[in-house]
């Protein structure tokens, strides 16, 4: 019998990581999991950055206690990316100040990360107000742009523009970065011509006033890069 929303919430237990970033969440994890043995869990990781390796280790700890991780909620876009890469349903949450009033809170509920699962073909243009994650390829003649970071879980061979509103800290990351054109804020560059290093993702960012392209490990460095949710930070 299918679970309704009400029975799902009753059957799924919420595991919240501590908000204090000066205390490692691993220090309290064992006691929390022992109390939830055999339960289905929803992980609320707050602003903690959890990469693929950390989430995989977490799943192993759950399996040892006959628990299942059904979903992840996070205020960190890279944690959402890591969870999606492992096939875990994930939702990006926008952090709210403790003293914010309800009216202003409602106005800030716009998605901080747009996730799109499809290949962009010639003539397509995917736009995002904040950050964008494309699970697929960007073919020649296609475009992808965002006010924040552009992340492509595939090959980027079209055009990409990050920081379209002038964010100089924006980045463009792809498993294979061979675009016709790269733009970050107002800076423009062409993609590299040499073949990418096997097994490494690539990242474009501004270094000393120019767009630099560097390798990024999708199992580590790519997912360990902090993505700001506030363009003013």
Kindly, what is the distance between the CA atoms of the first and last residues, rounded to a whole number of angstroms? Answer: 47 Å
- Major sheet, described briefly? 6 strands, mixed
Average pLDDT reading:
77
Strand order of the largest sheet: 5-7-9-11-14-15
Under CATH at level 1, the class of the largest domain stands as Mainly Beta
Low-confidence stretches: 1-11, 98-110, 217-233
Into which percent range does the helicity of residues fall? 10-25%
Per DSSP, the total helix count is 5
Shape category = elongated
Find the structural class using helix and strand composition.
Answer: alpha/beta
What's the gyration radius in Å?
Answer: 19 Å
How many domains make up the coordinates? 2
| SSE series | HEHEHEHEHEEEEEEEEEEE
CATH architecture of the largest domain: 3 Solenoid
Count of beta strands: 15
By oligomeric state, this entry counts as single chain
What is the CATH third-level topology name of the largest domain? Answer: Pectate Lyase C-like
Strand portion: 25-35%
Walk me through the structure:
This protein is of the alpha/beta class. 19% of the residues lie in helices and 32% in strands. The protein has 2 domains: 5-98, Alpha-Beta Plaits (2-Layer Sandwich), CATH 3.30.70; 113-224, Pectate Lyase C-like, CATH 2.160.20. The chain has a 6-stranded mixed beta sheet with strand order 5-7-9-11-14-15, with no helix packed on it. The chain is elongated, with a radius of gyration of 19 Å. The termini are far apart. Mean pLDDT is 77; it is low at 1-11, 98-110 and 217-233.
